[in-house]
Amino acid sequence: MQNIRRDIKNYFEMERESGISEYLFSSKPKDVQLSLVKNQVSNCQKCSLGKMRTNSVFGSGNINAKLVFVGEAPGRDEDIQGMPFVGEAGMLLTKIIEAMGIKRDDVYICNILKCRPPQNRNPLPEEISICIDYLYTQIDMIKPKIICGLGKFASQTLLGTEAPISKLRGTWSEYRGIKFMPTYHPAYLLRNPHDKKLVWEDMKKIMNEL
Ligand code: SF4
Fold it and tell me: What is the pTM of this model?
């Protein structure tokens, strides 16, 4: 947070030097702050994944969303495009969101890790512990009503548990006062389509809550 505060201060000093003296604080700070964190992520080399990425993948969607989806890490398509959930699993996630009666642009989508692990291997615990502050900052700024954890890594990390996703899914938990629904990752559903009905049960609980 110290770095973010310093960056915000520098940003406003630059703006002041270029002659801008008035700001719409009521509507701008969240955009500005998230842009600054995104910029930090795009330059981040705190773990070895920074050297291997094509693009970092910060997150996308409505920064005032009531619902935030958190996945695991960027895959190949996401690394190329710099956007979360744009590959086959992403298309399935979009279908799920639309089936809930909302648009993808209405929610916010991000991941635990902001850079792609090589060959889409699982995130390492040390990578998660180094990168996770970026996600905490995003959630603190967006302040959603509900977080949906997509898969084991997002759900276990945010709930601080090692329980398997098959046990976690479908039951409301809480992450720092925010309702948290763990469910299966769309990539898992592509391999196990018979479990789509379980995810739909979880989404119905979210819809009721929203
Ligand atoms: S994965 Fe996270 S900590 Fe590692 S380089 Fe990318 S942004 Fe930085």
Answer: 0.86
